[in-house]
Amino acid sequence: xxxxxxxxxxxxxxxERTKExxxxxxxxxxxxxxxxxxxxxxxxxxRTPLGAILGFAELISDKIERIVLPNLDLNDKKVQxxxxxxxxxxxxxxxxxxxxxxxxxxxxxxxxxESGKMDWRNELLDISELIEQILLITKPIVTKAGLTxxxxxxxxxxxxxxxxxxxxxxxxxxxxxxxxxxxxxxxKICAKRSGHEILxxxxxxxxxxxxxxxxxxxxxxxxxEPSPAGNKGNTxxxxxxxxxxxxxxxxxxxxxxxxxxxxxxxxxxTYQIPMPLRDTTDE
Length: 283
Ligand code: ADP
Description:
Blueprint: H1 2-68, H2 77-114, E1 123-125, H3 127-144, E2 148-153, E3 160-162, H4 164-180, E4 186-194, E5 197-204, H5 240-250, E6 255-260, E7 264-272
Parallel strand pairs: 2-4
Antiparallel strand pairs: 1-3, 4-5, 5-7, 6-7
Adenosine-5'-diphosphate binds next to α4 and α5.
């Protein structure tokens, strides 16, 4: 009888604890949702004025180049110096603006992905077309950094399905990193078939990542410190690769990196090739 009583008491205690845990979980979920909404709201609010700042800075830069410069008296040393300084400062505004823009895009994507509110599209994608577009998008930042970029894509790769904008974000993040952490040399994108998958790699001749850090670089907010590239490259907040990993995971692929300090890094990811539907018309 006393054992029975003990069991009843124990059961009611377990029930009580389970209820407490459920309540705590619900509170955590609510707090998490509030955080995601907040990040998404702030990022949206930053995006609009930032777009205007960058747009006007580009307009000023263009006007100076086309109208002001050809009409300047460059024999006047003062004018020459001031013009050079304006040009340098404008370039800083544009570069920092671009950096902030990339950060805001990443924050927006993270909050959407983590809150489960992301509308993943399932488009049929031609990898070689996608890579061609990526080369066009990234060429300006690569050239500005004094680097070169080239692609080696196997002919007739099968199409894959996925969210084009999100997969573009993966390429852009990986290539931006390659640019940030490479002082001199080249970046190479390769895509080839490997069994039931397509294997993509992005290789650079940059500072590299020490072996102990390699498995952790895909963690949220993880940065290699001190950076083998020095502080100049390490301007991000450790979100770029985390986002890549989230996006690739959602596409049922894998992502990893190989690297040698002082020689360079290669980031790999895979896409699943969709199974062809079996033709049953003749059966
Ligand atoms: P961040 O946005 O701060 O660059 P990431 O998540 O993109 O963050 O990268 C995490 C860290 O991994 C970086 O801080 C950097 O130290 C290292 N890293 C990423 N890509 C490269 C690369 N191509 N070459 C060298 N180090 C890299």
